[in-house]
Prior knowledge:
By secondary structure, the protein is α+β, with helices and mostly antiparallel strands. The chain folds into three domains: 9-117, 3-Layer(aba) Sandwich (Aminopeptidase), CATH 3.40.630; 142-303, Gcn5-related N-acetyltransferase (GNAT) (Aminopeptidase, 3-Layer(aba) Sandwich); 311-384, no CATH class. Helix content is 21%, strand content 27%. It is built from nine helices and 18 strands. The protein has helices spanning 18-28, 35-44, 100-114, 127-131, 165-168, 171-179, 246-258, 312-319, 363-372; strands at residues 9-12, 54-59, 62-76, 79-91, 119-122, 136-137, 140-146, 160-163, 203-208, 217-226, 235-243, 265-270, 300-303, 306-309, 326-330, 339-342, 350-353, 361-362. The strands form three sheets. It has a seven-stranded mixed sheet, with helices on both faces. It has a seven-stranded mixed sheet with strand order 8-9-10-11-12-7-13, with helices on both faces. Strand 16 (339-342) and strand 17 (350-353) form a beta hairpin. Helix 1 packs across helix 2 (35-44). The longest helix has 15 residues, at 100-114. The protein binds coenzyme A.
Amino acid sequence: MTPPDLPLDLRPAREGDLIPLARLWALAFPGEPSVANRARQLREGGPYGGLETAWVAERNGRMAGAFRAYDLTLHLFGHPFPTLGLAAVAVHPSFRRMGVGGALCRAALRLGRERGDLLSALYPFRVDYYARLGFTLAGEFHRYRFPPASLPLFPGWERIRMLVPDERIPRIPRFYASLLPRLHGAAHRTPAMWEFLKEEETQVWGLCSRNGEDDDLDGYMVTESHPRRRGRRAELRVRELLVEDADGYRAFLGWLSAQRDQWTEITYDALPGERLQQVLSHPRLPGTGTARGLWFPSATILRGPMLRILRLPDVLARLGFSEGAVLDVRDAEFPENSGRWSGSGEDEPQRMRGRPSEGALPISLVTGLLAEGELPGLPPPAASGFDPAMGIRDFRILDVF
Ligand SMILES: CC(C)(COP(=O)(O)OP(=O)(O)OC[C@H]1O[C@@H](n2cnc3c(N)ncnc32)[C@H](O)[C@@H]1OP(=O)(O)O)[C@@H](O)C(=O)NCCC(=O)NCCS
């Protein structure tokens, strides 16, 4: 495949690329793992796959760049959407600022479309770089850091018990799968994505079911300990907290509160819909003064990841674009999505006109409205039977790839 705007040859990675790819990614994403370890991880495969997810772009026989195209399934309002997870986009230092990165991303999106992906998701190094390609920031978390004692000692935490590695699979994946249709944005997880549960260092807390079945859970939480070190407080970090209902949620908050004699600080990324500030007695970062006057600095907003619609008619059809509804869309990358779409009452919406009008909505905005459940012409999520866990329909992807 040759992207139209640059003389690049794009091909799937092969065995002989392991070391050159590891070298490229070590240059682009410097950090701990050695080149040999990166190559080994790529050969053995990680949570989102191995060498088969990697693509290489060559220019005159030299490796100019690479990316990974993950095969994800995101659940939006209870419907599964095959999604291209775009990751590890890297351009060799000698080939930068010539348009190679842009060409790689365009080729990746085209690849995703061709293999049937309806959406694409990524974590951006810079937002405007991907906004230009039609992506938009979707969803947000509120990162709270607070002393455990500022949470009430809600009852119910006696139902929470530690799950050692042997007890986690299949209970945690089974609970997650049962909740997935009620989590807007979350990804279907393969066994490889659950590998982290096998690690002794991962701390997993299960909320035993009230139905008394030994094996059933009503929720779980994954935590990480960061002991006191020079210049840092003893911190307990919540990596993942999923529960069936508000009682279970309060049980976990009560449990966190009960840890006050060990930990100075809890870090928790809450969805806006959790309204955590309403239960925190002092929702201010430890050690921070007032920002100005009596204003109150509380959580840091974490925005993202970014999302993009790849196949608009299929997305509309899957969510039930209403008969007679009209949507005028502009997509500079994929003319296939552009134009005036009208709900026909049959499976696929009809394209009334291929060329977008002056006032057509850019695909990035259409994607944002989709994630918020506000896209004109789609039935309100509740009307189509979506029953969000804990009543929270905020968009969230829990996986970081
Ligand atoms: C981020 C990265 C992939 C960008 O690759 P790149 O090939 O340099 O990107 P592009 O050339 O497509 O775009 C970079 C800029 O050069 C500009 N540019 C592209 N071709 C140009 C040309 N011929 N003349 C002048 N400028 C040009 C682009 O418009 C863009 O400008 P911007 O600052 O307005 O965004 C690369 O820097 C990299 O590998 N970084 C490290 C890893 C990383 O962060 N990856 C992203 C993971 S999400």
